[in-house]
Amino acid sequence: MYDTDLATLAVHAGRHDFTQLGVHAAPLDLSSTYPVPDPEAGTASYDAMAAGGAPVGSAIYARLHNPTVARVEQAIAELEGAEACVAFASGMAATTAVLLATAMDGAHVVAVRPMYGGTDHLLESGMLPIQVSFVAPHEVASAIRPDTGLVFIETPANPTLALLDIAAIVESAGTVPVLVDSTFATPVLQQPLRHGAAMVLHSATKFLGGHGDVVAGVVCTSEARARRLRQVRVLTGGILHPLAAFLLLRGLPTLPLRVEQAQRNAVALAERLASHAMVSRLHFPGHGDSDPTGLIGRQMRGPGSLMAFELHGGTEAANAFLRALRLITPAVSLGSTDSLIQHPAGLTHRLMDPAVREAQGITDGLLRLSVGLESVDALWQDLLAGFAAAEQVAAVGAGNDVRR
Predict the structure, then answer these.
(1) Based on the structure, what is the number of domains in the chain?
(2) Quick check: is 301 catalytic?
(3) CATH for 267
(4) pTM over 0.85
(5) Is residue 213 annotated as a catalytic residue, yes or no?
(6) What pLDDT digit, counting tens, does each position of 63-108 carry?
């Protein structure tokens, strides 16, 4: 670890040997296989990687290890203050690996909603050899069983931006390890391991990549837990592609700048959104009563750049809103340089039971906005066009005129 600030660390993490190598950009190794000139040494290396360790000589085969992937793992581990990081082909591949590794020790998982719809669906699918108890934050302690192997939380939560006190959840979990999906916060705004979490997960597709051209997932944790995750990755073939690792390395130096500027834009937009008559509720960390225990400043360094707002008029108004946009891209994903907006009830959280979805505050009129780096005024003008279209639909549905 560098003893320095995060902005400097983001630039230099994973690059400690560049001078020795004589390069200024990260090497990209696209090899699918590696020579094994000494069979006995190759066997020893294979055994080391199958046990979750690093190669001792030849990397044998790219499903087992790749040096470009290992480099971005080192960089992200440094940013999270972790001993190790394990990179996967997607955020869901990373989540699946954690759950499979958990099943080796304890078949029961305690999960706190809301969370990303894909994660929620995987936990409920019955596809994995686990049992799941979905609970409210204050119910974590009472849900722990002798066979509980993991407590799974997401904060800020997708898509309502609900905040959870990581240290309080860790205390409630006792000896059970806590995994935090910290995708929305990034290590710039939140480092869950510092609050007692055992693992922190990111869909690196989002802010860590930051440019809409990478699909990746990472888990940062202790070396002992990382070895177990690498064992799962070796068996299941979920390793990150080296080109994606290279692109992640390309994006990390600007991560603090991107996160901070997008956050400034989001704060400015939140004030305007909250006062618009078509918005029945704004979900944004730090706004209104969203942070009663003061987690921003204590756990998070800021509110971030994700928000959600509920429109009068439900699905029809939301659809009209999205169709009217010309600058903001209607698309799933988040954390890109450009602003993205999507309808969770119709897309990311579509596979949830509708009653459960509604109970979690994921209403038919809810839109999730990932604020990018455009100017605030340009974004607001586009949002106003959306509101105008939604207003017409809501007025027809209500049989009267809805005014700003």
Answers:
(1) 1
(2) no
(3) 3.90.1150.10
(4) yes
(5) no
(6) 999 999 999 999 999 999 999 999 999 999 999 999 999 998 878 9
